[in-house]
Amino acid sequence: MTENLKSKAITQGVQRSPNRAMLRAVGFGDNDFTKPIVGVANGYSTITPCNMGLNELALKAEASIKNAGGMPQMFGTITISDGISMGTEGMKYSLVSRDVIADSIETACTGQSMDGVIAIGGCDKNMPGAMIAIARMNIPGIFVYGGTIKPGHHNGKDLTVVSAFEAVGQYSAGKIDETELTAIEKNACPGAGSCGGMFTANTMSSAFEAMGMSLPYSSTMAAEDPEKAESTEKSAQVLVEAIRQQILPSQILTRKAFENAISVIMAIGGSTNAVLHLLAIANTMGVELTLDDFETIRQRVPVICDLKPSGRYVTVDLHNAGGIPQVMKMLLVNGLLHGDALTVTGKTIAEVLANIPENPPTNQDVIRQWNNPLYKEGHLAILKGNLASEGSVAKISGVKNPKMTGPARVFESEEECLSAILDGKIQAGDVVIVRYEGPVGGPGMREMLAPTSAIIGAGLGDKVGLITDGRFSGGTYGLVVGHVAPEAAIGGNIALVKEGDSITIDAHEKLLQINISEEELLQRRQEWQPPQPRYPRGVLGKYAKLVSSSSLGAVTDLNLFN
Questions:
Q1: Which of the residue ranges 12-26, 66-80, 306-320, 378-392 would you say has the lowest mean pLDDT?
Q2: pTM
Q3: 301: pLDDT confidence band, cut at 50, 70 and 90?
Q4: Is 388 helix (H, G, I), strand (E, B) or coil?
Q5: Which listed CATH number (3.40.1160.10, 1.25.40.340, 3.50.30.80, 3.10.310.70) goes with 380-552?
Q6: In whole angstroms, what is the distance from residue 308 CA to residue 321 CA?
Q7: Alpha-carbon distance 419 to 417, whole Å?
Q8: How many angstroms separate the CA atoms of 470 and 94, rounded?
Q9: Each residue of 377-411: b (16+ CB within 10 Å) or e?
Q10: What's the burial of 208, exposed, middle or buried (CB within 10 Å: 0-12/13-18/19+)?
Q11: What average pLDDT score do residues 392-410 get?
């Protein structure tokens, strides 16, 4: 056993007798005090189907750690269901929960001198929250994804939670009746697991597999399938060995690992939220990563997976077609992946992928053949201009022409915007602006799934642009631009847009622009007054006070004392 164990401060320290007495009460025997203490960060809750199956996995991990020679110490951490809180004030707590999760895991592991941690999560913020904590602590860690939900079915079609949001827009537009709306609602989410398309949870699990912080194939397994429990047991064994070998996150979460993750995200058509979360994790790990890096990689990596929300298939289909290892092998053989990047197993990416075929099976089209991609370039474009001098993120998958100029329709909140869409007040050619929803202004940077789904449901997906300093759900698609920075609440130019102003979105030129003179912008800025904080106290108040720009990952511990 390696000698540099954090847990020795507890098990063999100066205050050995009282420390050991308390550990005996939680199950330590005479022979256990030389074993590594391994945290089991358990995201179980019945708040959301994403996390309702996690306790069984945590118990599997606990038993496997013991069998591998470690001493597991289980503790809980929170979750917020984005899907349930979507479109409500509660959604402001979603991104905030990422940092609460990170803080809680760091506090428990460091406070109890744990030697490593296996983090088990399901809903969107569990993953980046856990990885931020692992990066901060730099103790051996591994992430176990709770698994994806299986698709719902109705009228011969696969359904996801986004189907229910889009059905609301269809109902409001008179395209379906209430009976059909209710049927979709009842069938969209059939059981345990995270939202089934290539939405944020599945995107981040895929990214972590690409980075070497989760085991191969684990990111696309269904929550209710037996292989998920088996993979969890194996993950616990791998972690105990990583503790013995002292394979640290700082050796794995390198610049090459982040580039690999971005390449995979582009290839699978992943969520815009991955940009925010990878920037935050990189910042914590001390790896230089900027929005421009995403654009550079986007231009050389094609989209090769036909996945929802804009595509046809769900994540279990991707798993059955070969999963993330198949995607990674295709990227590797085409020079778009760093094969020498290390994984938590101690093997390199190239070694892990050694036996994976270079081409996907020909009897499926979930993963396209390399010479027949869905799109020749990635789908997450970084736009800049006088409306987003620090940058913004456009999701252009499923969009026939990612360029438009139109009149601004300005809304000061998500609720105002959604009401206008459902009332039929948004027309083809409009550019919708939803502002004061950024990290500071929201606070919490709400996702705009309800408005974007309503636009899709109304048949305006290719005809209306939407720009916000908030975020988008991984279930969003269409001509949408989020993460606009600087945000409105701190005086970004998005705060200066007036109803009817000409706005240009141009993904080809990577441009986001308000078409007025600099003199007019300057005059408007002189007239602008910053809004009063919406939450002067509590977790949202603290968050608004501490949070950085979305262009830096919306982290809360950036240069705290500078």
A1: 12-26
A2: 0.95
A3: very high
A4: strand
A5: 3.50.30.80
A6: 15
A7: 5
A8: 12
A9: bbbbbbbbbebbebbbbbbbbbbeebebebebbbb
A10: buried
A11: 91
Q: Which residue has the tokens 């986001």?
A: 512
Residue-wise pLDDT tens digits, 358-377: 999 999 999 999 999 999 99
DSSP 430: -
| Tens of pLDDT, residues 325-367 | 999 999 999 999 999 999 999 999 999 999 999 999 999 999 9
| Residue 225 tokens, joined | 């399938």
SS (H, E, C) 291-325: HHHHHHHHCCCCECECECCCCCECHHHHHHCCHHH
Order the strands of the 37-42 sheet from edge to edge. 71-76, 37-42, 116-121, 141-145
If you average pLDDT over residues 277-293, what whole number do you get?
A: 98
For range 511-529, the mean pLDDT: 97
Residues 6+ apart with CB under 8 A from 236: 38, 60, 61, 62, 64, 65, 68, 70, 118, 142
Helix, strand or coil, per DSSP, at residue 432: strand
The three-class DSSP label of residue 172 is helix
- d(Cα 562, Cα 373) in Å, to the nearest integer? 47
**DSSP, res 393:** E
Domain spans of the chain, in order of start: 35-150+191-352, 151-190, 380-552
pLDDT mean across residues, the chain: 94
Residues 262-277: what's their mean pLDDT? 97
Among all residues, which ones are annotated catalytic?
A: 473
CA distance 160 to 279: 28
